[in-house]
């Protein structure tokens, strides 16, 4: 029994990410994207008060909700669990983008003509304004 206690005492203490820290990460990312709490609530199909409770850390998020929120905010689930930890690489991490965005960007970069690029941008603007 003493050996087990000695081993446990020698192990580094693991930090648990709190609901409040996850909530701060949600708020930070939402603001980076310029999304209101009301809009995020619509995307998540919850009330804006529920989004407030998530962001304030008042409600604990289950695994399913974390995945839905991560998808809505275009970040990997790990985004919420690396808050406050130093990055292990010298370069800043690239923002997470869904596969469709990566495909669009790949093709957009191949467009040589400036006017064609403007056309694609305008089409995207028009499509984004559709209800």
| CATH level 4 superfamily of the largest domain | lambda repressor-like DNA-binding domains
| Total strands | 0
**Biggest beta sheet attributes:** none
Number of helices: 7
| SSE pattern, N- to C-terminal | HHHHHHH
Q: What is the arithmetic mean of pLDDT?
A: 82
Q: What level of helicity do the residues show? A: 55-70%
**What is the CATH topology assignment of the largest domain?**
434 Repressor (Amino-terminal Domain)
- The rounded Rg comes to 20 Å
Query: How many domains make up the coordinates?
Result: 2
Structural account:
The protein has 131 residues and is mainly alpha-helical. It folds into two domains: 14-81, lambda repressor-like DNA-binding domains (434 Repressor (Amino-terminal Domain)), CATH 1.10.260.40; 99-129, no CATH class. The chain is 59% helix and 0% strand. It is built from seven helices and no strands. The radius of gyration is 20 Å and the shape is elongated. The mean pLDDT is 82.
């Amino acid at each position: 029994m003493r050996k087990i206690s000695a081993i446990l005492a020698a192990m580094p203490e693991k930090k648990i990410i709190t609901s409040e820290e996850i909530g701060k990460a949600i708020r930070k990312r939402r603001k980076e994207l310029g999304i209101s709490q009301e809009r995020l609530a619509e995307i998540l199909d919850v009330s804006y008060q529920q989004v407030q409770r998530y962001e304030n850390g008042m409600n604990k998020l289950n695994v399913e909700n974390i995945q839905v929120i991560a998808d809505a905010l275009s970040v990997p689930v790990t985004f919420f669990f690396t808050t406050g930890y130093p990055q292990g690489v010298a370069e800043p991490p690239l923002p997470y983008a869904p596969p469709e965005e990566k495909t669009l960007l790949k093709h957009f970069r191949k467009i040589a003509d400036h006017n064609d690029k403007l056309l694609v941008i305008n089409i995207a603007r028009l499509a984004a304004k559709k209800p």
